[in-house]
Amino acid sequence: MKLFQKSPWIIHYDGASCNGCDIEVLACLTPRYDVERFGIINTGNPKHADILLITGYINEQSQPVVRTIYEQMPEPKVVVAIGICATSGGIFRECYNTKGGVDSTIPVDVYVPGCAARPESIIDGVVQALAILERKKKEMAARP
Amino acid sequence: MNLTHAILAALLYIVAAPVLAGLLAGVDRIISARMQARIGPPLLQPFYDLFKLFQKERIAVNKTGHFFLLGYLLFTIIAGVEFFIGGDLLIVIFALALGSVFFVLGAFAAGSPYSHIGAERELIQLMASEPMLILSAMGFYVATGSFQVHDIWSRPDLLIVILPGMFAGLVYVLTIKLRKSPFDLATSHHAHQEIVKGITTEFSGPYLAVIELAHWYETILLLGFLYLFFAPWPWLAVLALAAVYFLEILADNTNARLYWQWVLRSSWIFTAVAGAGNLVVLYYLSRGGTP
Amino acid sequence: MNIVLFLILFPLAMAGLIALLGGHVGLRTALVKIGSGVVAIGALVLLALNLQGETQWLRFDWPWLQKAVLGLDILVTLILLVIAVRGRQITVTALVIAQAALIGMTEFGGHAHAHVEAPLFIDSFSMIMAHIVGVIGGLIVWHAVGYMPHYHHHHPEVPGGQRWFFATIYLFLGAMYALVFSNHLSWLFLAWEVTTLCSFLLISYPRTPEARHNAFLALRLNMLGGVAFAGALLYLAKTGGPFALSEIIRSAPASMLVPVLLICVAGLTKAAQMPFSAWLLGAMVAPTPVSALLHSSTMVKAGVYVFVRFAPLLQNTVMGLLLALIGVTTFLFASCIAISQSNAKRVLAYSTIANLGLIVTCACVGNPQAVWAAILLIIFHAVAKALLFIAVGSAEHSIGSRDIEDMEGLIERRPKTALAILIGIAGMFLAPFGMLVSKWAAIEALMKSHPILPVMVAFGSSATLFFWSKWMGKILSTVKGPPPPHGPVSMEEKNAMFFLSLLTVGLCAAWPFISSLSIKPFLLSYYGTAVELNRVTIVIMSSMLALIVALPLSLLYKGEKKLRITTPYLSGANVLERDLFTASIGGTKPLAIRSYYLTEFFAEGRLTRMGLAATIALLAALVMVVKP
Fold first, then answer.
1. pTM for the whole thing?
2. Contact call for C572 and A13, based on CB within 8 A
3. Does the complex come out with an ipTM higher than 0.85?
4. Domains in chain A: ranges and CATH
5. Fewer C-beta within 10 Å: chain A N or C terminus?
6. How close is the nearest chain B Cα to the Cα of A54, in Å?
């Protein structure tokens, strides 16, 4: 049974954003979109999570935090960059303190564009992440 | 109860309790979702979660964590087995407390501030709920003259009639034990969160699965406590348990988390009024009204 | 039964020898060590000689013996008087004079002193007490040999007086043996007074103003009990009542109300029950072996000893119920107060007061099952508490503090000491360890009395759950490891910790045997019935114990190789070293974790005042009930 597809727990981290995407992420949990239908739970704890949702770009200050949170998640894990800032830095790309998108710091598996990303596309991104999660699980099991 | 029956009962509990409790948790999540105008996860979602957790990588902050969690699971199961083979109620309660202490120690040993706060709060919850559990055993003793679950079970009279205060008190602390709002200080279920995940913060993957499993065993044991009040009429018992569980879900979804001060004070006062009051009334009634 | 006389006289002789020859360090050490061995082995020989636990009486045909006891009584009184006058203690002086007057009236007031056929006796309960005194006493004296040089090293301001220290300890051991073997009330009273005197001398040992103050506090409250005891003797002499313990127990309860109440009040003071509990907290200034020996495992047990002796007289009486209420109130309040304490020795002191309260409660309920529970409590508490005191003393020497907050991560810094503390704590409150077995028995027994008693026990034991778990957690919590502490633990300290840990665990496996070998004969001789144990319960308890002992083996589990060790969750703000984090306004800060003390709920001052008010009201009610 593809368990990881049935029980993806997420943690949401805001690198540095205008909070537009954050509000859309939270909107996914509301009755209108109800991501718990897919067994998705927002845990708020990297140690319990399978999927790291990051909104906003990465700057000097958030870089070590993102690294630590990623490191503290147990395998298998996937990263979903949400919104155009998280995918590339967006309009903040040329700022003096910007490191870039999330992939400047940790490996990203799914990019969800949009400013702000719509809940439908966020859910779609997470669903795509599930397939990757399942693949990583198989790779993990294959490892000695 | 003879030896064969006892072994069968023990095995049945060990096998069936997680299945039942898992289904119950699934129903719980669906009802919660409906109360929030959502559709909610599939019924088997708790099992998906549990099996997924077992497949995750093992990470921990130190090497001793699993030792304490093993203690938590084992002694919770022992408490349940002692209950369902008809043993001594006080021993059941003490074994359950031992299991919880193991859990708390595991969280302390992790040496993380969030799990530490969770552990302290779990201890407050233990302190808040323990008197009522012990009192309920005393109530059964006064009503039936025995601490043995087997003797209480096989009484022909409906104990809820003479122990209504005890029942109310147990339902009250059940909210603590089931980790439901407004009493979910130490950790929380579903998507609730505050102070990260409290006592479970540092446990992940298989370790978290063990905690969930132990919690399931505990849930069935506690429902077993409530069943004793209706033992002669099983259909009534099932109805009552369903009603109680529904009430717990309703409370969970309509209340915000309380301060620990409120939890401790209210549950001790409730225990003293409903539990001890019931006990004292019974004592004087049994002496024919002459103090 | 010369062994009984030997057990009493040997420590007294040792006291004399050490006082005479103790100036030489090597000689004194050797003497003390040999003595501790003999005291412990003597107690075990007693068991071997009297395995059946039959009651035996010791008769003496020496007419001068009673006069000698009286002489010693006068001597002790004079010493106390000198201490009181030199300390300019008006209350103590008045109490000593009052007590002297009462004893004078008893002995010389023209009352025909009831003859006691056998002044000494031994039954299975005395044997249990003798084992506690001998085995635990022996171990603690052995421990003290290693501990005291450390103590003086850490407290250079304390004048060296180890010679008198050990002499007093041996004097105390002799008195304790005499106390548990006495059938003659005057002899019991003499031993009682000697333990009070020893307690005073040992509390004042550090010679600081605080120690002096606390020693006099202890003396004042214990003398109050002494006066009550002397009053009981006078009452018995006046009414021509019996002076033998064995005869008092067999008398009609109604005729013995007054003397039993008075002696029980003396027991309340000695067992540090509210409202007399303040002295035990003050007594914690004394060196650790004193706290372990006198103020947790033995001397305070003398207080509950008389309650257990009088249990048949207290059973089903209003007086018994009121005394039980005093005990259970003490249990509840002391347990709750302990939550707010961070000083390890104060936690232990409050827990001692609480558990003595529970024993008093059980003894006062007085049915066979309750007495059974009381005796089990006495045994288990003595062992676990002695272990805890010793281990905490050892930890104090290594980390330089007796604050529980400073014991963080002790499991990494001092694994063996930490393990000893953990075993001691587990022994105090966790199933299937001894105290929990006894608490279970106590609750079941108390159900046969007024339900308010077990209800209060339920609340109190929930409070104990909180403060013990919290302490264990602190020891296990490995946030950071300050550099390993200075100073080695002496060999004697290690020995004592090892054997007491072994005893704490071993007794949990052995309690069904102790119950059937020692407690059952006692209950049979007192009540004609005994407590039958539920086999299934024993099996469950034993398997839980086996599991607890076996669980650490899971640490060897090989699958753990796949375990990835990571940092604790700090909102991602971890700095590479595990005990630092990035603060919100930049810069790194060390991580610090402190426990909950819930002082808002369990404020020491307020709870103490409430406890005092409740117990004083109960005492007043007792006086109303018992009209001479």
1. 0.94
2. yes
3. yes
4. 6-142 (3.40.50.12280)
5. C
6. 18
